[in-house]
Design brief:
The complex is a heterodimer of chains A (199) and B (271). Chain A has 199 residues and is mostly helical. Chain A contains nine helices and no strands. Chain A is globular and about 55 Å long. The relative contact order of chain A is 0.09. With 271 residues, chain B is an all-alpha fold. Chain B folds into three domains: 50 residues, no CATH class; 60 residues, no CATH class; 133 residues. Classes of the chains: A mainly alpha (199), B mainly alpha (271).
């Protein structure tokens, strides 16, 4: 654990609220985005991220000082998200509208000149929906691994630490997830081609 | 393992940049010759690229600015900031964590051994007879008159036994008749005959029938010894021997002795 983080932990244990706020500011985006990536729902992601911070606050006294703080927090997040996914009976509904403003915003940020074209915007939304649907075809654990590696820039070694498994297991989980996504996307591609929607 | 299978196991290493140089060479060679594996890898790469196109919905700055407020509001609602009152058991466990686990394990083992020894000693070891206590309890002032009489009787029997054995074991063919020391034997016999008279009367009062009979038998024999001539008369000695044998006096004496020792043991056990 970094010396600075060690200091924060000590201060929180002494009941310092500002230190806890510092910790929240440092991790809030990482936690929220990881939760969102795994759950695919904004409200649920915020709820889980808050839950994670409450758990961290409550169990900070039991935190083993020799382990990495970020790994410990990611571990709590991943477990909370996987639990939430298991409790969830059906996958959340993804509306096209959710992605319309995203794709437009994204295109603006990238400086795209095609923003004015509504057809392209619709295509981007469809693509996002396809990605999201494909992600629901992998198991919660595989999805968590895939998200940590692809969207949260965690190294394989770090993911292994978070999940308490070997690097080999992480690699094979990643490969399984990727293979399922490949198959799922090729199915969609086939359907889209038949419907004449695919680019 | 076939080359295709081996090749597929290396796909994830290739995609995540963890391929070793030797493996890279093998993979490249195989992909040049195997269109099926190449096509699969191309699809995987395309899937990765496609997935990279995923966009997260960006939350506005206000979402992040208010995040702490929302979190603290929830934490207050759930009483998270309230200092948690630790249970005494938790406090004890936390304090015990100062020492390593093996110290408690050793202490527990020692306590168990001590308890085991204590239980073993108290419950399973044979009771120790405190002889001194037994003897002191036999103090004349505390012993009843019947016990005193029995003790006296047994002393009498012991002395008579020694006397009888000396006479009975005397072999005139191998031993010198003077070895027997008849005058002394006669004197002791007279004393014992006198004592037999008192003992008989007293034993009659305490219903000690067996003892009484033995004393009567002994009295007869002892009287014979007391009436011996000063010169050893072999025929009389033989008669005494036959009398001892026919009445089974030595056997009765031994039985009385055994009864006494068994009574003693029972008495000790009761302590």
């Amino acid at each position: 654990m970094e010396e600075n983080e060690q200091n924060i932990v000590d201060r929180i244990c002494q009941g310092n609220k500002e230190a806890f706020q510092e910790l929240v500011e440092r991790y809030k985006k990482k936690i929220y985005f990881l939760a969102y990536d795994i759950l695919g729902d904004h409200h649920e992601a915020e709820d889980i991220s808050q839950e994670v911070f409450i758990k961290v606050f409550r169990s900070l006294k039991n935190f083993r000082r020799h382990s990495k703080m970020s790994s410990w927090i990611y571990q709590i997040t991943t477990n909370s998200c996987i639990d939430a996914l298991r409790k969830r009976k059906s996958k959340p509904k993804i509306s096209l509208g959710d992605f319309n403003h995203i794709s437009i915003k994204n295109n603006v940020e990238r400086g795209s000149t095609r923003i004015q074209n509504p057809e392209l915007s619709a295509d981007a939304s469809i693509m996002q929906r396809r990605i999201q649907n494909a992600l629901y075809e992998v198991t919660p654990r595989e999805r968590a691994v895939f998200m940590m590696r692809h969207y949260n820039d965690l190294e394989i070694k770090e993911i292994a630490e978070v999940l308490n498994v070997s690097s080999g297991t992480v690699k094979s989980m990643l490969f399984r997830a990727l293979n399922k996504l490949r198959k799922e996307l090729s199915i969609h591609r086939g359907r889209s081609a038949m419907e004449g929607n695919y680019e | 393992m076939s080359d295709c299978k081996k090749c597929r196991t290396l796909f994830s290493d290739l995609l995540y940049g963890e391929l070793e140089s030797g493996q890279k060479q093998f993979l490249e060679n195989h992909l040049q010759d195997c269109p099926k594996c190449k096509s699969e890898l191309d699809e995987l790469t395309a899937a990765v690229r496609f997935m990279e196109g995923r966009i997260r919905p960006e939350q506005g700055q206000s979402f992040w600015d208010d995040y702490w407020c929302r979190l603290t509001k929830r934490m207050k609602k759930e009483n998270v900031f309230k200092p948690i009152k630790e249970k005494w058991l938790d406090v004890l466990i936390r304090r015990m964590q100062i020492y390593p686990r093996w110290t408690y394990q050793s202490a527990a083992a020692i306590v168990l051994i001590v308890i085991g020894i204590f239980i073993g000693r108290v419950l399973f070891s044979p009771s120790v007879i405190n002889v001194s206590h037994v003897i002191s309890s036999e103090d004349a002032s505390q012993i009843g008159p019947d016990i005193q009489l029995i003790q006296r009787t047994h002393n009498y029997i012991e002395r008579s036994k020694l006397m009888l054995l000396a006479v009975v074991n005397f072999d005139p063919e191998t031993e010198d008749p003077f070895v027997l020391d008849l005058p002394y034997q006669q004197q002791v016999s007279r004393e014992l005959v006198q004592e037999a008279g008192w003992l008989k009367k007293e034993l009659a009062g305490f219903r000690q029938r067996r003892m009484q009979e033995l004393i009567v038998d002994l009295e007869v024999i002892l009287l014979q010894i007391a009436n011996l001539e000063s010169e050893p008369d072999m025929s009389v000695i033989k008669m005494i021997k036959d009398g001892v044998e026919s009445r089974g006096i030595l056997l009765k004496m031994n039985l009385a002795d055994i009864r006494r020792s068994s009574n003693k043991k029972n008495k000790y056990k009761s302590f």
